[in-house]
Amino acid sequence: MLQTMTTIDEIIVGGVLGSSKNPDEASFVVSHGKGAKLWSSSGHEYTDYVLGSGPMVLGHAHPAVVDAITAQAARGTQFYLMNEVAPELARRVCRLVPCAETVKFVGDGAEATFYSLRLARAFTGRSKILKFAGGYHGHHDYVQQGVFDASGRSGLSLGPDNAGIPQAISEDVLLSPFNDLEAARRLVAEYGPDLAAIIVEPIQRALLPEGGFLQGLRDLCDQNGSILVFDEIVTGFRVAPGGAQELYGVTPDLCALGKILGGGLPIAAVAGRRDLIELSVPYRAADGRSIFLSGTLNGNPLCAAAGIATLDTLQQIGAQEKIAKTGEALRRGLEENARKLSIPFQMVGHPTFAQPVFREGRIRNYADFAAADFQLARRFGVEMIKRGQNLVVGGKVYISTEHDENIVSSTVEAGFQAMSAMRDAGHFG
């Protein structure tokens, strides 16, 4: 078995599976997980606040999910035909999610946002989309624009965030500051006849929407004939059973769902208005609006079975209220640590996935967030990992149903030790 990151780096370039890599002093290889805990291949135990980047809301190896996967594996894992399991997951989505008149399954969250925008462009016959600076919607070309834009400006994207994306696509992407409804109104007034969609994370990364902001976007789309797309990959089934659209009472035309939807297995979905999603039906009447939407593993029965078990268990135990209460206790504890040590610090966002930020004052958009000291946030993450608390270094802190009062208490104590070590090392001047 591979034991070191150096060995792994020889066969998996960079030694990472995606875009996130911890410093060497905080890197480890996972052996297994159970509940709120992870164990490394060297035998170290960690309380896990990464949770697979969010999907493991029931914790690792939850018995209901394990049983569902095991039972389905014995019946077959892939057919590329309609199976008995996928419609059952779709029924749950349609019952829970306000906008979901129908569902199309895809492979991951980026595909869900990609196809949502393709549907919007096909339906409206328009080319431009509006997204919000700092918003992350996956890896495809239209949304890898302005992810790291902290200028606070609004207007056309100045260019893609990374290489390999045609500059011409930037000409169809409008950027606006999150929580600035007036800036969005100005862009719609200027580009409205060409605007196919507004796409937004209703809670952007960890930034909460201000009162009236989401409803204002709904009104703008209604007035302009544009499609409102909610990226609920993170918020879906987490902040409320029906996601952020239930929590805030604003219904989009389409939403992208993922993470929790598959209970740790790879599945995502586009959900929303039937007249939009039916443009993906094969061999529909030729009207120039049909889109191609397909994937070998779309609606995979093994993934759907894990998703059904996860959604059913969440409902049975009232999970959203439970994890919010736990997350709020963690927020209070860490912020109290910082007050005792006279450190500028706050946990920004919804308690089920708040983010440590080292600055004081109001944070309402990405420019405000970017003004914080990101290196301090990274250092805090490293110090927490060294103390047995697995965090995304510099990122969100996900809560599961398996995190309890005792676990939170231990994490708060580790947080005090981590902040104290940072202060003693002179990180706060």
Please write out the topology.
Layout: H1 5-11, E1 30-34, E2 37-40, E3 45-48, H2 63-73, H3 85-96, E4 102-106, H4 109-124, E5 128-132, E6 155-156, H5 167-170, E7 173-176, H6 181-191, E8 195-200, H7 213-224, E9 227-231, H8 244-248, E10 254-257, E11 268-272, H9 274-277, H10 301-317, H11 319-340, E12 346-348, E13 355-357, H12 366-370, H13 374-386, E14 389-390, H14 405-424
Parallel strand pairs: 3-14, 5-7, 5-8, 8-9, 9-10
Antiparallel strand pairs: 1-2, 2-3, 4-11, 6-7, 10-11, 12-13
Helix pairs in contact: 2-10, 3-10, 6-7, 11-14, 13-14
Query: How big is the Rg?
Result: 22 Å
Largest sheet: 8 strands, mixed
Query: What is the count of distinct domains?
Result: 2
Name the strands of the widest sheet in spatial order.
4-11-10-9-8-5-7-6
Low-confidence segments? none
User: What is the straight-line distance between the termini?
Assistant: 44 Å
Counting DSSP E segments of at least 2 residues, the number of strands comes to 14
CATH level 1 class label of the largest domain: Alpha Beta
Averaged pLDDT, please? Answer: 95
- Could you say what the CATH architecture of the largest domain is? 3-Layer(aba) Sandwich
What is the ordering of alpha helices and beta strands? HEEEHHEHEEHEHEHEHEEHHHEEHHEH
Q: CATH H level of the largest domain: which superfamily?
A: Type I PLP-dependent aspartate aminotransferase-like (Major domain)
Name the helicity range.
25-40%
CA-based shape: globular
CATH topology of the largest domain: Aspartate Aminotransferase, domain 2
Strand content: 5-15%
Provide a count of the helices.
14
Counting helices, strands and paired strands, the structural category is: alpha/beta
